[in-house]
Amino acid sequence: MHVLTDNFALYWQGFLGTVELTVYASLLALVLGFLMASFRVAPVGSFRVFGTVWVNVLRNTPLTLLFFAVLLGLPRFGLVLPFQLFAVLTLGCYTSAFICEALRSGINTVPKGQGEAARSLGMTFGQTLGMVVLPQAFRSVIPPIGSTLIALAKNSAIAGAFSVTELLGTYKPLNEMGYNIIWTFVWIAVGYLIITLSISALFNVLEKRYGVAR
């Protein structure tokens, strides 16, 4: 227990860093995921191509490689931002591809008649998607989106290797100070467990309130 009590400030700083990364990257992933899902079902061919390329490139590229490309590659082109912001962009963009596909699967469960009825009333594609299709699709994909955001929280551990303050990175100074490495990682695991269980609880509430009864 003394590993935690003696270094609570260090653990707390890492915990808050992981929470911030998770929250900001999740918001970015949800926005981009909804946007790319809209592109993938849009009547404009160029939008569909862009959405398809976005999803296929990001889903099939290792996350660590994306971190190297963004955090180390973009500054070479003159784009210099704080490493934490780079980490949010990387995690958010990567996760948006999975959010997009989860949401697209939900869109496919909405009967085509819903969209046809909306168009017959004179609604545009954007109105049909935003007011008719997406609200119904989201209700059916709450669990997979929750699982994706839980994975995002765990993936944030990679950011620690790129000078970003997060929970897993606390093991380095503790190891240098000679603390038991096993108990160091036990308390790190507890921190991640708190974060992931909180996300799971939030989406359980959303599912009970808005989810489709099966």
Automatic annotation (TrEMBL):
<feature type="transmembrane region" description="Helical">
    <location>
        <begin position="80"/>
        <end position="100"/>
    </location>
</feature>
<dbReference type="InterPro" id="IPR043429">
    <property type="entry name" value="ArtM/GltK/GlnP/TcyL/YhdX-like"/>
</dbReference>
<feature type="domain" description="ABC transmembrane type-1">
    <location>
        <begin position="15"/>
        <end position="203"/>
    </location>
</feature>
<comment type="similarity">
    <text>Belongs to the binding-protein-dependent transport system permease family. HisMQ subfamily.</text>
</comment>
<dbReference type="InterPro" id="IPR010065">
    <property type="entry name" value="AA_ABC_transptr_permease_3TM"/>
</dbReference>
<dbReference type="InterPro" id="IPR035906">
    <property type="entry name" value="MetI-like_sf"/>
</dbReference>
<feature type="transmembrane region" description="Helical">
    <location>
        <begin position="53"/>
        <end position="74"/>
    </location>
</feature>
<feature type="transmembrane region" description="Helical">
    <location>
        <begin position="21"/>
        <end position="41"/>
    </location>
</feature>
<keyword id="KW-1003">Cell membrane</keyword>
<dbReference type="InterPro" id="IPR000515">
    <property type="entry name" value="MetI-like"/>
</dbReference>
<feature type="transmembrane region" description="Helical">
    <location>
        <begin position="181"/>
        <end position="206"/>
    </location>
</feature>
<protein>
    <submittedName>
        <fullName>Amino acid ABC transporter permease</fullName>
    </submittedName>
</protein>
<keyword id="KW-0812">Transmembrane</keyword>
<keyword id="KW-1133">Transmembrane helix</keyword>
<dbReference type="Pfam" id="PF00528">
    <property type="entry name" value="BPD_transp_1"/>
</dbReference>
<keyword id="KW-0813">Transport</keyword>
<keyword id="KW-0472">Membrane</keyword>
<keyword id="KW-0029">Amino-acid transport</keyword>
